[in-house]
Write a structure and sequence with these properties.
eight-stranded mixed beta sheet, 8 strands, 31% strand
């Protein structure tokens, strides 16, 4: 009888820890959209290496999360929705780009604030975007020498 009670208590404790871990993981991945964030939108030519839950950073610090990525059938660009921290107000001429943490590191979204006096309102779009750069494309340009001539010698 006592061993059954101990097993039940141990099982309940493990279940409580598992639920706590899942809640923490969901919040840190950006799945909870509480009142502490506001949405912004951006449209990228390419979002290689970025998924829902990717970090949005300003000055190297996480200030937001990618909450949605969809393909725009009209422009063929990837439309991203970003949950930004409420206390971070961005000027209307802010730029957003996809950066890499290094040669072998992952990608993240970087915010580069502008100097405008007006701020982006919730739901507005960041117009100045730069998609991800393909490492293979850069290497091919380097190996090819970046020569734009047609091969004729004059």
């Amino acid at each position: 009888m006592a061993s059954e009670r101990a097993e039940i208590l141990a099982g309940a404790a493990v279940l409580a820890v598992a639920v706590g871990f899942l809640v923490y993981a969901a919040q840190s991945a950006g799945f909870s959209q509480g009142s502490d964030s506001y949405p912004l939108k951006a449209s990228f030519r390419a979002v290689d290496g970025i998924t829902v839950g990717s970090d949005v950073r300003l000055a190297g610090l996480k200030v937001g999360t990618i909450t949605d990525l969809t393909l725009n059938p009209t422009t063929f660009f990837a439309d991203a929705t970003i949950a930004m921290q409420k206390e971070i107000l961005l000027p209307t001429d802010t730029a957003i780009l996809i950066s890499s943490e290094g040669l072998l590191g992952g990608n993240f979204v970087e915010i580069v604030p502008g100097g405008a006096l007006e701020n982006l309102a919730p739901g507005e779009e960041i117009e100045d975007t730069q998609g991800s750069v393909s490492l293979v494309t850069l290497l091919m340009k380097f190996v090819g020498g970046g020569d734009s001539s047609n091969g004729s010698k004059e």
